[in-house]
Design brief:
By secondary structure, the chain is an alpha/beta fold. The chain has a single domain, classed as Rossmann fold, CATH 3.40.50.620. It has helices spanning 16-28, 45-60, 62-67, 77-82, 108-123, 145-159, 174-196, 219-235, and strands at residues 3-11, 29-38, 68-75, 127-129, 164-166, 208-209, 212-213. Helix 6 (145-159) links the parallel strand 4 and strand 5 (164-166). The chain is globular. The structure holds zinc ion. Zinc ion is lined by residues 200-202, 204, 214-215, 218, 220-221.
Length: 240
């Protein structure tokens, strides 16, 4: 299913979620560009995975390769300078006093969406696709469905455009994200997600597990490992 003459910009970090979002967009839109943000995150290795993920997808899916357009990287170092969190400095990843994890970068997704929309405006792209998810995330308030919907209204008012913000992962859990990868691109896409995408907050690319690379102990690794285990069990027809 392709939406003729419609174009999209995918917020693409090189992680599992945004890679599945990229595949989702390539299945739907005639032209798809990607944008990544460098804000001094500790797991910068994620950004290094982006080119490789795009190359592997283009190689494995010729129909998608025709639709895959330019990649953009925006330097948002100012976010890292402003926020003192476990994602941008060498601090313990834990639960903070306000009930939010210490990895929370205040306003991150609001800033990302604003810059993505400004880029989409300039590039003539109408659909914005992001991997925000309310289901089993760490309670980041800027991942909420209401936040994204409010941003769509604000961006359209503020930029005099008709952007559509898509969050295909909003109501599914990590296991279902693996299932979505399989539905969109079969075993080939699941392999790319395992092998090339990065989720680990600590940026560990040395340890390889069934679900991919990572330290295996940080919240991002735990979430990814648990989701993959449930996905594999579901494949075997056993209860997850
Ligand atoms: Zn980790």
């Amino acid at each position: 299913m392709t939406v003729a003459d419609e174009s999209a910009l995918v917020l693409f970090s090189g992680g599992q979620d945004s890679t599945v979002c990229l595949a989702w967009a390539l299945e739907r839109f005639a032209r798809v560009e990607t944008v990544g943000f460098d804000y001094g995150q500790r797991h910068k290795v994620e950004l290094d995975c982006r080119a490789q993920v795009r190359a592997r997808i283009a190689e494995a899916f010729p129909a998608w390769a025709e639709r895959l357009g330019e990649d953009h990287t925006l330097d948002l170092g100012v976010l890292g300078a402003l926020s003192d969190t476990a994602l941008t400095r060498d601090a313990e990843i834990a639960m903070g006093a306000e009930g939010l994890p210490t990895t929370f970068v205040p306003g991150r997704n609001l800033v990302f969406l604003t810059f993505a929309a400004a880029l989409a405006y300039r590039r003539g792209l109408r659909h914005l696709v992001g991997g925000m998810c309310e289901t089993d995330y760490s309670g980041y308030p800027d991942c909420r469905d209401d936040t994204i919907k409010a941003m769509q209204v604000a961006l359209n008012l503020g930029m005099q455009r008709n952007f559509v913000l898509h969050t295909p992962l909003m109501w599914i859990d990590k296991a279902a994200t693996w299932v979505l990868a399989e539905t969109l691109g079969g075993e080939a896409l699941v392999d790319i997600v395992v092998e090339e995408t990065h989720s680990c907050y600590r940026g560990d690319r040395d340890r390889r597990h069934a679900w991919g690379y990572g330290c295996g102990a940080c919240p991002a690794c735990e979430l990814r490992a648990r989701g993959y285990a449930a996905f594999v069990e579901g494949r075997r027809g056993e209860p997850a």
